[in-house]
Give the backbone structure.
Amino acid sequence: MTQLPDTSSSLLSALDRGESLPARWYTDPSITEREITHVLRKSWNYIGPLSQLSAIGDYVTGYAGGVPVVVLRNESGLAGFVNVCRHRRHEVMKGRGNAKTLQCGYHAWTYDLAGGLKRVPRSASEPNFDLADFPLLPIRAEALGPFVFVNLDAEAPTARSCYGPVLDLIAESGVVLDTLVPYSREEWRSNANWKTMLENYLECYHCAVAHPGFNAAIDVRPDVYTLETHGYFSSQSGPVRPAALEGKARTRLYDVSGTVRQSQYHFLWPNVTININPGFPNLSIDVWTPDGPNATKGISEQFFGPGVSDEFAKSLVAFNKQVAAEDDALTDSVQRGLLGGIPDKGRFLTNSEHLVIHFQKMIVEAVGTY
Ligand SMILES: [Fe+2]
């Protein structure tokens, strides 16, 4: 039997009824390819902290929809480029650091900080060769608070117009963004579709069931835990539990008694999340990137406010890792369910899972009929 393609309108009206996307949207490599083209290459991709781009020549490398990119500071401000040499397409820069020029490690083609090609060994004897024809390709780079993003799409709305109000919400938590200090950066990989993982992030219906430590620290009851969509971003927030503040939690917890009295979990379309937990000023930012349909590769950066003790930092990082490990077990299991393909669709609870529905609708609108 040939399966007819799902139309966008039929999928969107199914989502309004609480019916999820079909299973193959999570397992079919051609859908992942469309997501890379139509979602990740048309939206803002987090690259790194602005504090690591403060001096001229500072650079940070990363990827946007699978394209190697570099952001640097030059005389004019922040500049973004495709981090691929115009010669043989080797990646030009690696990691993060400070450089006077951008020199490719393959044949030493050398670009200045404005992306202009300045030196090519043996090119003087090459006929019909003009350095000016091969600059690094520019892309958009934009700072939003202390975070730097890039976008491969010249037509996309600015990062500030997509996510600007997130900065105001974070300020309400007691975290002062401009004072945050980078603490750690980790790369990770997980065995579930990137959407499976983000859809788990976008609801806390599972928190009381699957996260005993988290549930002891944060009040996840539906009357106090809020979930709000705001177009290009969505936000969840829950207050710290009084029992945890008084040291009476039933589970052993990190010290939640600092100035931050609420948790905040922000999702920035399509694949960035920002987390604040109760306690001393803290923030982490994650990027969730498809690695084929059945795996996700990610980056997590942790920041703390000035003067936060190393003991608190270590205990909060351990808390976040525990929650992430519990979530990985859940999403790995969901992915096995999706790979089986039966049942084809799930059923949401629209009051507790409307952020997930909003995300799936944005995916359908971006990917189109398929
Ligand atoms: Fe979770």
Observations:
- The two ends are 17 Å apart (CA to CA).
- The chain has nine helices and 17 strands.
- The chain has a mean pLDDT of 96.
